[in-house]
Specification:
It contains 18 helices and 2 strands. With 517 residues, it is mainly alpha-helical.
Length: 517
């Protein structure tokens, strides 16, 4: 083949990679939007379908349990079936489930559709990230691709608040489900025609059924335990029972994985220092982020009286800052600095942003208090997320890319569940204590009682945000001490023959100078 023809083929391959990124990112945006867009529509859906207050949480919980519990299984299926096939199946199923949810005529139909969304989301999320990991192997291209993907993964939730408010207010709650259908159809068609999965990257080993059962039940128990803690309390028998069950199941899962020939989650994926440190620090960072996200939403709507649309617009500066941090700071510096030199300062900057938000009072101004905190939070998280998501899948054998990607999503999902339950409980307790201590000062005056109610809520929010500051600081410390990967001066490419189950990572990896690509 002539040199000109070789360059033409190389250029066509590069174009296809960037086209593939568009459709992978679109699918990721759909999944992330869905995590918050339905929350905005929930009151309207509850009223329309006659869902009781006791059961309304299941609109959120049904999705969270299916998604969180099946992520590892979804990642393993991606490695077994092929990421492209799993990606398209996930998109198709997610679109159908969303259509059913939008057309729901009763509570059972809506809850079933949410569980189905979670199931197909568990196929879609790890296959999207693993496709990105095996498609972009050149260090500079990988940095740009993960910068875009990280911006969507971190900032999409805030966009969901805005889009959910617009759709609910100007159309109706059903469109928060229907909007997923065109997203999914476009992404699935684009993936089918554009994405070319590298040959020889599947893991065709038999499925580890005991591992699937133990991991799914263990993760469902863990996520549901935190959900129950939020509603029933941490000392409730059901909460304690779920946590004990989760502990027993996940320990049993680890023991099984260390003994079976073809494990669902090869321990080499999580035991490697950099990946393990990344999963842990990312999970902790998400705890703080979800907590602050939750309390600022409450603060703006309940205390300040913002509408859903206005609240969504209030979060947009954070989204912009997240995109800047991910694409202009993280992606530009990740090939020049070690990952921890971005992750640790990024999480530390997020802690500083949360520290600023502890100054919230009933009448705090948006430009003076909230805006600086949101901008710093976006910059810090964006700068840290990009190298974290890249490092979590970097150097892993292609046959393990699906489960490695699933672990990223699992750490985020479990972190989100912990953040919502733990920090909500902390806030509620602080609010109750403040009310009891100051009740006598508001006796007899309706205006004084309303003011006290608002003050107690804000006290609870800021008390919980202090916890988020500490958690974010720990995430920064873990990134600094655990993650020791050097600056990526080489491109890591895995051999196509690495389809066995017993070979070591080093045997299946070839390191080539970036200049050779």
């Amino acid at each position: 083949m002539s040199q000109t023809a070789a360059h033409r083929l190389q250029g066509a391959g590069a174009n296809n990679r960037w086209k593939a990124l568009v459709f992978i990112s679109l699918a990721q945006l759909m999944v992330v939007l869905d995590s918050t867009i339905v929350n905005i529509a929930l009151p309207s859906a509850q009223h329309a379908l006659g869902i009781s207050d006791a059961n309304k949480q299941w609109v959120i919980t049904a999705y969270a349990l299916a998604f969180g519990g099946l992520l590892l299984f979804g990642g393993r299926l991606a490695d077994l079936w092929g990421r492209k096939r799993t990606f398209v199946v996930g998109l198709t199923g997610f679109a159908l489930a969303s259509a059913v949810g939008g057309a729901a005529a009763n509570e059972a139909m809506l809850l079933s559709s949410r569980a189905a969304q979670g199931l197909f989301g568990a196929l879609l999320a790890p296959s999207a990230l693993s496709l990105l990991a095996v498609t972009f192997t050149d260090a500079k291209e990988r940095a740009k691709a993960f910068g875009i993907f990280g911006a969507i993964a971190g900032g999409g939730g805030a966009v969901g608040l805005l889009l959910g408010g617009v759709l609910t207010e100007y159309l109706n709650w059903r469109w928060t489900f229907f909007v997923n259908v065109p997203f999914a159809v476009i992404a699935a068609l684009g993936a089918y025609f554009v994405i070319r999965e590298p040959e020889g990257t599947r893991n065709r080993s038999s499925l580890d059924i005991p591992g699937v059962v133990l991991a799914t039940l263990g993760l469902v128990s863990l996520v549901y335990g935190f959900t129950r803690a939020e509603t029933a309390g941490w000392s409730a028998t059901s909460t304690i029972g779920l946590f004990v069950a989760a502990g027993v199941l996940l320990v049993s899962f680890a023991l099984v994985e260390s003994r079976v020939k073809a494990p669902l989650l090869p321990l080499r994926v999580v035991s490697e220092r950099n990946r393990g440190g990344t999963y842990l620090s990312l999970g902790l960072a998400i705890i703080g982020l979800f907590g602050v996200f939750l309390f600022l939403t409450y603060y703006l709507q309940v205390v300040q009286g913002y509408s859903a649309i206005k609240t969504g617009f209030a979060f947009l500066p954070m989204v912009v800052a997240f995109v800047v941090g991910s694409t202009q700071i993280g992606a530009r510096l990740v090939t020049r600095l070690p990952a921890r030199a971005l992750m640790a300062p990024g999480f530390a900057l997020a802690a500083v942003a949360m520290l600023l938000l502890t100054r919230l009072q009933v009448g705090s101004s948006y430009p003076g208090v909230i805006l600086p905190g949101l901008v710093l939070l976006g910059l810090g998280m964006g700068s840290a997320f990009m190298p974290a998501m890249s490092l979590a899948t970097q150097g892993v054998q292609p046959r393990d890319a699906g489960v490695a990607s699933a672990m990223v999503n699992t750490s985020q999902q479990v972190g989100g569940a912990i953040g919502t339950a733990l920090l909500n409980t902390v806030a509620a307790s602080a609010t109750t204590t403040y009310l009891a201590a100051h009740a006598t000062h508001a006796a007899g005056s309706a205006g004084a009682q309303r003011l006290l109610q608002s003050q107690s809520l804000v006290h609870g929010y800021t008390h919980a945000i202090w916890w988020a500051v500490a958690i974010e600081a720990v995430a920064s410390l873990i990134a600094l001490t655990f993650v020791n990967a050097p600056r990526p001066s080489t491109t890591i490419v895995a051999s196509s023959s690495g389809t066995g189950t017993g070979a070591k990572d080093a045997q299946d990896e070839v390191q080539l100078p970036a200049a050779m690509h």
